[in-house]
Amino acid sequence: MGETLLIKNAAELVTCSGSAPKTGAAMNDLGIIHDGAVLVEDGIITKVGATAELLSAITGPVDKEIDAAGKCVLPGFVDSHTHFVFGGYRAEEFSWRLRGDTYMEIMERGGGIVNTVRDTRLASKQELKELARKRLDSMLALGVTTVEGKSGYGLDLDTEIKQLEVMAELQGEQAVEIVTTFMGAHAVPQEYQGRSGEFIDFLINEVLPVVAERKLAEFCDVFCEKGVFSVDESRRLLLAASKLGMKSKLHADEIVQLGGAELAAELAAVSADHLLHVSDEGIRKMAETKVVATLLPATAFSLKEPYARGRVMIDSGVPVALASDFNPGSCFTGSIPLIIALATLYMGLTPAETISALTINAAAAVDKADKIGSIESGKQADIIILEHPSHLYLPYHIGVSIVETVIKKGKVVWSK
Ligand SMILES: N=CN[C@@H](CCC(=O)O)C(=O)O
Ligand SMILES: [Zn+2]
User: Fold this and answer.
1) Total-model pTM
2) How remote is the CA of residue 103 from the centroid of ligand 1, in Å?
3) What distance in Å separates the CA atoms of residue 113 and residue 187, rounded to the nearest whole number?
4) Is 7 helix (H, G, I), strand (E, B) or coil?
5) pLDDT category, 1, cuts 50, 70, 90?
6) In a 10 Å sphere around its CB, with 0-12 CB exposed, 13-18 middle and 19+ buried, how is residue 376 labelled?
7) If we measure between CA atoms, which residue out of 223, 254, 221 comes closest to residue 238?
8) 16 vs 74: CA distance, rounded Å
9) 279 exposed, middle or buried (CB, 10 Å; 0-12, 13-18, 19+)?
10) DSSP letter for each residue of 66-102
11) Is the ipTM of this complex over 0.90?
Protein backbone atom coordinates (compact mmCIF):
# COMPACT_ATOMS: atom_id res chain seq x y z
CA MET A 1 0.00 0.00 0.00
CA GLY A 2 1.38 3.48 -0.95
CA GLU A 3 0.88 6.74 0.95
CA THR A 4 -2.52 6.84 2.62
CA LEU A 5 -4.77 9.67 3.77
CA LEU A 6 -7.87 9.20 5.87
CA ILE A 7 -10.53 11.90 6.25
CA LYS A 8 -13.04 10.90 8.90
CA ASN A 9 -16.05 12.09 10.94
CA ALA A 10 -17.22 14.53 8.26
CA ALA A 11 -20.55 15.99 9.35
CA GLU A 12 -21.52 15.86 5.69
CA LEU A 13 -19.60 14.03 3.00
CA VAL A 14 -20.91 15.35 -0.31
CA THR A 15 -19.94 12.68 -2.83
CA CYS A 16 -21.72 13.92 -6.00
CA SER A 17 -21.68 10.25 -6.98
CA GLY A 18 -23.72 8.64 -9.72
CA SER A 19 -23.71 8.68 -13.47
CA ALA A 20 -22.26 11.77 -15.08
CA PRO A 21 -23.11 14.34 -16.15
CA LYS A 22 -26.06 14.80 -13.84
CA THR A 23 -29.31 15.93 -15.43
CA GLY A 24 -32.77 16.86 -14.15
CA ALA A 25 -33.61 15.69 -10.63
CA ALA A 26 -30.24 13.95 -10.28
CA MET A 27 -28.60 17.38 -10.05
CA ASN A 28 -30.31 17.73 -6.68
CA ASP A 29 -28.95 14.41 -5.43
CA LEU A 30 -25.54 15.06 -3.90
CA GLY A 31 -25.11 11.53 -2.54
CA ILE A 32 -24.53 12.87 0.97
CA ILE A 33 -23.11 10.56 3.63
CA HIS A 34 -23.54 11.81 7.20
CA ASP A 35 -20.58 11.16 9.50
CA GLY A 36 -18.64 10.18 6.41
CA ALA A 37 -15.08 9.12 5.73
CA VAL A 38 -12.78 8.77 2.74
CA LEU A 39 -9.64 6.68 2.35
CA VAL A 40 -7.08 7.74 -0.23
CA GLU A 41 -4.17 5.61 -1.40
CA ASP A 42 -1.47 7.08 -3.63
CA GLY A 43 -3.73 9.99 -4.61
CA ILE A 44 -6.69 7.80 -5.56
CA ILE A 45 -9.88 7.38 -3.52
CA THR A 46 -10.17 3.73 -2.49
CA LYS A 47 -12.94 3.74 0.13
CA VAL A 48 -15.92 5.99 0.81
CA GLY A 49 -18.57 5.43 3.48
CA ALA A 50 -19.81 6.01 6.99
CA THR A 51 -16.88 6.56 9.36
CA ALA A 52 -17.53 3.58 11.64
CA GLU A 53 -17.83 1.12 8.73
CA LEU A 54 -14.90 2.54 6.83
CA LEU A 55 -12.61 2.44 9.88
CA SER A 56 -13.40 -1.19 10.50
CA ALA A 57 -12.55 -2.01 6.87
CA ILE A 58 -9.06 -0.46 7.00
CA THR A 59 -6.40 -3.12 7.31
CA GLY A 60 -3.03 -1.37 6.89
CA PRO A 61 -1.42 1.69 8.50
CA VAL A 62 -2.63 5.19 7.67
CA ASP A 63 -0.01 7.90 7.01
CA LYS A 64 -2.15 10.99 7.59
CA GLU A 65 -5.53 11.51 9.23
CA ILE A 66 -7.79 14.54 9.02
CA ASP A 67 -10.60 14.80 11.53
CA ALA A 68 -13.42 16.59 9.69
CA ALA A 69 -15.84 16.60 12.63
CA GLY A 70 -18.28 19.51 12.26
CA LYS A 71 -17.17 20.06 8.67
CA CYS A 72 -18.47 19.44 5.19
CA VAL A 73 -16.26 17.56 2.71
CA LEU A 74 -16.83 17.95 -1.04
CA PRO A 75 -15.14 17.26 -4.37
CA GLY A 76 -12.78 20.08 -5.42
CA PHE A 77 -14.40 22.68 -7.65
CA VAL A 78 -13.70 22.50 -11.38
CA ASP A 79 -13.60 25.88 -13.12
CA SER A 80 -14.37 24.69 -16.62
CA HIS A 81 -14.20 27.99 -18.53
CA THR A 82 -11.45 30.59 -18.03
CA HIS A 83 -9.05 32.76 -19.99
CA PHE A 84 -6.39 33.09 -17.28
CA VAL A 85 -3.26 33.57 -19.44
CA PHE A 86 -3.08 37.14 -20.67
CA GLY A 87 -1.01 40.31 -20.51
CA GLY A 88 -2.22 43.80 -19.61
CA TYR A 89 -5.49 45.11 -18.19
CA ARG A 90 -8.63 46.80 -19.51
CA ALA A 91 -9.73 48.85 -16.51
CA GLU A 92 -10.49 51.87 -18.68
CA GLU A 93 -12.84 49.81 -20.86
CA PHE A 94 -14.60 48.67 -17.71
CA SER A 95 -15.17 52.32 -16.78
CA TRP A 96 -16.62 52.93 -20.27
CA ARG A 97 -19.01 50.04 -19.70
CA LEU A 98 -20.03 51.62 -16.40
CA ARG A 99 -21.07 54.75 -18.26
CA GLY A 100 -23.17 52.68 -20.68
CA ASP A 101 -21.00 51.55 -23.62
CA THR A 102 -21.64 47.91 -24.48
CA TYR A 103 -19.03 45.14 -24.72
CA MET A 104 -19.62 44.81 -28.48
CA GLU A 105 -19.48 48.59 -29.09
CA ILE A 106 -16.05 48.67 -27.48
CA MET A 107 -14.98 45.64 -29.55
CA GLU A 108 -16.31 47.20 -32.78
CA ARG A 109 -14.25 50.37 -32.29
CA GLY A 110 -11.05 48.38 -31.94
CA GLY A 111 -10.98 47.67 -28.21
CA GLY A 112 -11.92 44.58 -26.29
CA ILE A 113 -10.15 41.30 -26.95
CA VAL A 114 -7.70 42.79 -29.49
CA ASN A 115 -6.56 45.22 -26.81
CA THR A 116 -5.46 42.27 -24.66
CA VAL A 117 -4.00 40.65 -27.79
CA ARG A 118 -1.60 43.59 -28.19
CA ASP A 119 -0.40 43.30 -24.58
CA THR A 120 -0.18 39.51 -24.71
CA ARG A 121 1.90 39.61 -27.89
CA LEU A 122 4.29 42.06 -26.20
CA ALA A 123 4.62 40.09 -22.96
CA SER A 124 7.39 37.53 -22.56
CA LYS A 125 6.48 33.94 -21.82
CA GLN A 126 7.99 34.33 -18.36
CA GLU A 127 5.87 37.41 -17.61
CA LEU A 128 2.70 35.66 -18.74
CA LYS A 129 3.60 32.63 -16.69
CA GLU A 130 4.12 34.56 -13.47
CA LEU A 131 0.81 36.42 -13.88
CA ALA A 132 -0.99 33.16 -14.66
CA ARG A 133 0.61 31.40 -11.69
CA LYS A 134 -0.68 34.06 -9.30
CA ARG A 135 -4.18 33.72 -10.74
CA LEU A 136 -4.05 29.94 -10.24
CA ASP A 137 -2.92 30.45 -6.64
CA SER A 138 -5.99 32.61 -5.98
CA MET A 139 -8.28 30.02 -7.57
CA LEU A 140 -6.76 27.23 -5.47
CA ALA A 141 -7.52 29.18 -2.29
CA LEU A 142 -11.19 29.18 -3.32
CA GLY A 143 -11.24 25.38 -3.66
CA VAL A 144 -10.60 25.08 -7.40
CA THR A 145 -8.56 21.92 -8.06
CA THR A 146 -8.92 21.83 -11.86
CA VAL A 147 -9.16 24.75 -14.25
CA GLU A 148 -9.74 24.95 -17.98
CA GLY A 149 -7.68 27.65 -19.69
CA LYS A 150 -7.93 29.01 -23.21
CA SER A 151 -5.48 30.62 -25.57
CA GLY A 152 -6.98 33.32 -27.78
CA TYR A 153 -5.05 36.45 -26.90
CA GLY A 154 -2.43 35.82 -29.55
CA LEU A 155 -4.39 35.36 -32.77
CA ASP A 156 -1.06 34.64 -34.47
CA LEU A 157 0.96 31.45 -34.47
CA ASP A 158 3.72 32.48 -32.08
CA THR A 159 1.56 34.08 -29.40
CA GLU A 160 -1.09 31.37 -29.45
CA ILE A 161 1.70 28.82 -28.96
CA LYS A 162 3.26 31.01 -26.23
CA GLN A 163 -0.02 31.01 -24.27
CA LEU A 164 -0.44 27.25 -24.67
CA GLU A 165 3.17 26.66 -23.61
CA VAL A 166 2.59 28.75 -20.48
CA MET A 167 -0.23 26.40 -19.51
CA ALA A 168 1.81 23.31 -20.37
CA GLU A 169 4.70 24.54 -18.20
CA LEU A 170 2.46 25.51 -15.28
CA GLN A 171 0.91 22.05 -15.31
CA GLY A 172 2.71 20.20 -12.56
CA GLU A 173 4.66 23.27 -11.34
CA GLN A 174 1.74 24.19 -9.07
CA ALA A 175 -1.25 22.35 -7.62
CA VAL A 176 -4.14 23.28 -9.90
CA GLU A 177 -4.59 20.84 -12.79
CA ILE A 178 -4.97 22.60 -16.14
CA VAL A 179 -7.11 21.50 -19.07
CA THR A 180 -5.97 23.35 -22.16
CA THR A 181 -8.12 24.77 -24.96
CA PHE A 182 -6.96 26.33 -28.22
CA MET A 183 -9.07 29.42 -28.93
CA GLY A 184 -7.29 31.11 -31.81
CA ALA A 185 -10.79 32.00 -33.08
CA HIS A 186 -11.46 34.37 -30.19
CA ALA A 187 -11.59 37.53 -32.32
CA VAL A 188 -10.56 38.65 -35.78
CA PRO A 189 -7.12 40.30 -35.44
CA GLN A 190 -6.52 43.74 -36.93
CA GLU A 191 -4.41 42.28 -39.77
CA TYR A 192 -7.44 40.21 -40.92
CA GLN A 193 -10.13 42.90 -40.33
CA GLY A 194 -13.17 42.19 -42.51
CA ARG A 195 -11.70 38.82 -43.58
CA SER A 196 -12.86 36.47 -40.86
CA GLY A 197 -13.12 33.55 -43.32
CA GLU A 198 -9.50 33.97 -44.37
CA PHE A 199 -8.47 34.13 -40.73
CA ILE A 200 -10.25 30.81 -40.13
CA ASP A 201 -8.31 29.39 -43.13
CA PHE A 202 -5.09 30.63 -41.54
CA LEU A 203 -5.97 28.96 -38.23
CA ILE A 204 -6.86 25.71 -39.98
CA ASN A 205 -3.82 25.63 -42.24
CA GLU A 206 -1.08 27.23 -40.16
CA VAL A 207 -1.93 27.04 -36.47
CA LEU A 208 -4.08 23.99 -35.74
CA PRO A 209 -1.52 21.53 -37.20
CA VAL A 210 1.22 22.90 -34.91
CA VAL A 211 -1.05 22.81 -31.84
CA ALA A 212 -2.03 19.22 -32.66
CA GLU A 213 1.49 18.05 -33.52
CA ARG A 214 2.81 19.41 -30.22
CA LYS A 215 -0.24 18.13 -28.30
CA LEU A 216 -0.73 21.57 -26.75
CA ALA A 217 -4.54 21.52 -26.50
CA GLU A 218 -7.24 19.00 -25.73
CA PHE A 219 -10.11 21.25 -26.90
CA CYS A 220 -10.77 23.79 -29.62
CA ASP A 221 -13.15 26.67 -28.86
CA VAL A 222 -14.57 29.49 -31.00
CA PHE A 223 -16.41 32.77 -30.32
CA CYS A 224 -19.45 31.98 -32.47
CA GLU A 225 -21.12 35.38 -32.42
CA LYS A 226 -22.63 37.99 -34.71
CA GLY A 227 -19.78 40.19 -35.93
CA VAL A 228 -17.10 37.70 -34.83
CA PHE A 229 -17.30 34.17 -36.32
CA SER A 230 -20.39 32.86 -38.09
CA VAL A 231 -21.96 29.46 -37.53
CA ASP A 232 -20.43 28.24 -40.81
CA GLU A 233 -16.96 29.50 -39.93
CA SER A 234 -17.23 27.99 -36.46
CA ARG A 235 -18.33 24.65 -37.91
CA ARG A 236 -15.43 24.64 -40.39
CA LEU A 237 -12.86 25.32 -37.68
CA LEU A 238 -14.25 22.82 -35.16
CA LEU A 239 -14.49 20.07 -37.78
CA ALA A 240 -10.87 20.67 -38.79
CA ALA A 241 -9.80 20.60 -35.14
CA SER A 242 -11.77 17.45 -34.56
CA LYS A 243 -9.96 15.72 -37.45
CA LEU A 244 -6.74 16.51 -35.58
CA GLY A 245 -8.10 15.00 -32.35
CA MET A 246 -9.31 18.11 -30.52
CA LYS A 247 -12.73 18.07 -28.87
CA SER A 248 -15.15 20.95 -29.41
CA LYS A 249 -16.35 23.78 -27.20
CA LEU A 250 -18.20 26.92 -28.24
CA HIS A 251 -18.85 30.39 -26.94
CA ALA A 252 -22.47 30.24 -28.02
CA ASP A 253 -25.41 32.65 -28.14
CA GLU A 254 -23.72 35.04 -25.71
CA ILE A 255 -24.66 38.42 -27.17
CA VAL A 256 -27.32 37.47 -29.74
CA GLN A 257 -29.19 34.30 -30.66
CA LEU A 258 -27.10 32.95 -33.54
CA GLY A 259 -27.59 29.19 -33.38
CA GLY A 260 -24.44 28.33 -31.45
CA ALA A 261 -26.27 25.87 -29.21
CA GLU A 262 -27.74 24.11 -32.26
CA LEU A 263 -24.26 23.90 -33.78
CA ALA A 264 -22.89 22.46 -30.53
CA ALA A 265 -25.56 19.75 -30.64
CA GLU A 266 -24.91 19.04 -34.35
CA LEU A 267 -21.17 18.61 -33.70
CA ALA A 268 -21.69 16.69 -30.44
CA ALA A 269 -19.50 19.31 -28.76
CA VAL A 270 -18.49 18.60 -25.19
CA SER A 271 -19.90 21.95 -24.05
CA ALA A 272 -21.60 25.12 -25.23
CA ASP A 273 -20.88 28.09 -23.00
CA HIS A 274 -22.56 31.40 -22.05
CA LEU A 275 -25.96 30.76 -23.75
CA LEU A 276 -27.51 34.00 -22.46
CA HIS A 277 -29.68 34.13 -25.59
CA VAL A 278 -30.07 30.45 -26.44
CA SER A 279 -33.26 29.49 -28.31
CA ASP A 280 -35.80 26.96 -27.03
CA GLU A 281 -34.79 24.74 -29.92
CA GLY A 282 -31.14 25.04 -28.89
CA ILE A 283 -32.04 23.94 -25.36
CA ARG A 284 -34.03 21.00 -26.71
CA LYS A 285 -31.17 19.88 -28.95
CA MET A 286 -28.59 20.22 -26.19
CA ALA A 287 -30.75 18.11 -23.88
CA GLU A 288 -31.09 15.47 -26.60
CA THR A 289 -27.36 15.27 -27.31
CA LYS A 290 -26.26 15.85 -23.69
CA VAL A 291 -23.98 18.76 -24.57
CA VAL A 292 -23.01 20.38 -21.26
CA ALA A 293 -24.30 23.94 -20.90
CA THR A 294 -21.57 25.86 -19.12
CA LEU A 295 -23.21 28.92 -17.62
CA LEU A 296 -21.12 31.92 -16.58
CA PRO A 297 -23.24 34.08 -14.29
CA ALA A 298 -20.39 36.35 -13.21
CA THR A 299 -20.07 37.47 -16.85
CA ALA A 300 -23.79 38.26 -17.13
CA PHE A 301 -23.46 40.15 -13.83
CA SER A 302 -20.42 42.09 -15.02
CA LEU A 303 -22.00 42.86 -18.42
CA LYS A 304 -25.31 43.74 -16.76
CA GLU A 305 -27.02 41.23 -19.07
CA PRO A 306 -29.86 38.87 -18.11
CA TYR A 307 -28.68 35.56 -16.67
CA ALA A 308 -28.80 32.40 -18.78
CA ARG A 309 -31.98 30.34 -18.35
CA GLY A 310 -30.36 27.77 -16.09
CA ARG A 311 -33.62 26.73 -14.42
CA VAL A 312 -35.27 26.03 -17.78
CA MET A 313 -32.22 24.14 -19.01
CA ILE A 314 -32.10 21.87 -15.97
CA ASP A 315 -35.84 21.25 -16.15
CA SER A 316 -35.44 20.41 -19.86
CA GLY A 317 -32.75 17.80 -19.15
CA VAL A 318 -29.65 19.76 -20.19
CA PRO A 319 -26.58 18.93 -18.08
CA VAL A 320 -25.68 22.31 -16.58
CA ALA A 321 -22.23 23.35 -15.34
CA LEU A 322 -21.17 26.67 -13.83
CA ALA A 323 -17.82 28.36 -14.36
CA SER A 324 -16.15 31.72 -13.79
CA ASP A 325 -15.12 32.86 -17.32
CA PHE A 326 -12.21 34.65 -15.62
CA ASN A 327 -10.84 37.03 -18.27
CA PRO A 328 -9.50 40.60 -18.55
CA GLY A 329 -12.53 42.04 -20.36
CA SER A 330 -16.03 40.84 -19.67
CA CYS A 331 -15.41 39.27 -16.26
CA PHE A 332 -12.32 39.91 -14.17
CA THR A 333 -13.07 37.43 -11.42
CA GLY A 334 -12.54 33.77 -10.66
CA SER A 335 -14.75 34.02 -7.61
CA ILE A 336 -16.53 30.75 -6.88
CA PRO A 337 -18.46 32.41 -3.99
CA LEU A 338 -19.83 34.99 -6.44
CA ILE A 339 -20.92 32.27 -8.88
CA ILE A 340 -22.67 30.40 -6.05
CA ALA A 341 -24.46 33.57 -4.96
CA LEU A 342 -25.64 34.43 -8.47
CA ALA A 343 -26.72 30.88 -9.36
CA THR A 344 -28.77 30.43 -6.21
CA LEU A 345 -30.16 33.95 -5.73
CA TYR A 346 -30.73 34.98 -9.34
CA MET A 347 -30.81 31.92 -11.58
CA GLY A 348 -33.13 29.78 -9.52
CA LEU A 349 -30.73 26.91 -8.96
CA THR A 350 -30.88 25.06 -5.66
CA PRO A 351 -27.72 24.84 -3.54
CA ALA A 352 -27.41 21.16 -4.51
CA GLU A 353 -27.79 21.88 -8.25
CA THR A 354 -25.20 24.63 -7.93
CA ILE A 355 -22.72 22.22 -6.33
CA SER A 356 -23.37 19.53 -8.97
CA ALA A 357 -22.77 22.22 -11.60
CA LEU A 358 -19.41 23.20 -10.07
CA THR A 359 -18.13 19.66 -9.51
CA ILE A 360 -19.28 16.61 -11.45
CA ASN A 361 -20.96 18.49 -14.31
CA ALA A 362 -18.02 20.87 -14.59
CA ALA A 363 -15.78 17.80 -14.78
CA ALA A 364 -18.01 16.55 -17.62
CA ALA A 365 -17.63 19.96 -19.31
CA VAL A 366 -13.91 19.20 -19.65
CA ASP A 367 -14.55 15.53 -20.45
CA LYS A 368 -12.99 14.36 -17.20
CA ALA A 369 -16.00 13.06 -15.27
CA ASP A 370 -14.45 9.60 -15.18
CA LYS A 371 -11.49 10.94 -13.18
CA ILE A 372 -12.56 14.00 -11.15
CA GLY A 373 -15.70 15.83 -9.93
CA SER A 374 -16.94 13.35 -7.34
CA ILE A 375 -15.79 11.48 -4.25
CA GLU A 376 -16.00 7.86 -5.37
CA SER A 377 -13.66 4.87 -5.33
CA GLY A 378 -11.26 4.98 -8.24
CA LYS A 379 -11.38 8.74 -8.66
CA GLN A 380 -8.52 11.16 -8.13
CA ALA A 381 -8.58 12.50 -4.56
CA ASP A 382 -9.38 16.16 -5.29
CA ILE A 383 -11.23 17.16 -2.16
CA ILE A 384 -12.11 20.31 -0.24
CA ILE A 385 -13.11 20.73 3.39
CA LEU A 386 -15.34 23.59 4.53
CA GLU A 387 -15.22 25.42 7.84
CA HIS A 388 -18.89 24.54 8.34
CA PRO A 389 -20.95 21.33 8.64
CA SER A 390 -23.16 21.50 5.55
CA HIS A 391 -23.08 22.44 1.87
CA LEU A 392 -25.95 24.84 2.67
CA TYR A 393 -23.38 27.14 4.25
CA LEU A 394 -21.90 27.80 0.80
CA PRO A 395 -24.71 30.01 -0.60
CA TYR A 396 -25.44 31.29 2.89
CA HIS A 397 -21.99 32.93 3.07
CA ILE A 398 -22.38 35.51 0.36
CA GLY A 399 -19.31 36.38 -1.65
CA VAL A 400 -16.81 34.97 0.83
CA SER A 401 -15.01 31.66 0.79
CA ILE A 402 -15.53 29.13 3.58
CA VAL A 403 -13.06 26.63 2.13
CA GLU A 404 -10.65 25.60 4.88
CA THR A 405 -8.52 22.89 3.27
CA VAL A 406 -7.78 21.91 -0.33
CA ILE A 407 -6.50 18.45 -1.21
CA LYS A 408 -5.16 17.65 -4.69
CA LYS A 409 -4.34 14.06 -5.64
CA GLY A 410 -4.41 13.09 -1.97
CA LYS A 411 -2.09 15.86 -0.73
CA VAL A 412 -3.03 18.92 1.30
CA VAL A 413 -2.03 21.76 -1.04
CA TRP A 414 -3.73 24.71 0.67
CA SER A 415 -5.18 25.40 4.09
CA LYS A 416 -6.48 28.45 5.91
N1 LIG B 1 -16.89 36.36 -25.21
C2 LIG B 1 -15.75 36.11 -25.55
N3 LIG B 1 -14.69 35.85 -24.78
C4 LIG B 1 -14.59 36.13 -23.40
C5 LIG B 1 -14.27 37.55 -23.13
C6 LIG B 1 -12.85 37.80 -23.44
C7 LIG B 1 -12.41 39.22 -23.27
O8 LIG B 1 -13.22 40.15 -23.29
O9 LIG B 1 -11.19 39.38 -23.14
C10 LIG B 1 -15.81 35.63 -22.65
O11 LIG B 1 -15.99 34.41 -22.67
O12 LIG B 1 -16.54 36.39 -22.03
ZN1 LIG C 1 -14.93 32.76 -22.44
Assistant:
1) 0.98
2) 9
3) 7
4) strand
5) low
6) middle
7) 221
8) 8
9) middle
10) EE-BT-EEEEPEEE--------S--HHHHHHHHTT--
11) yes
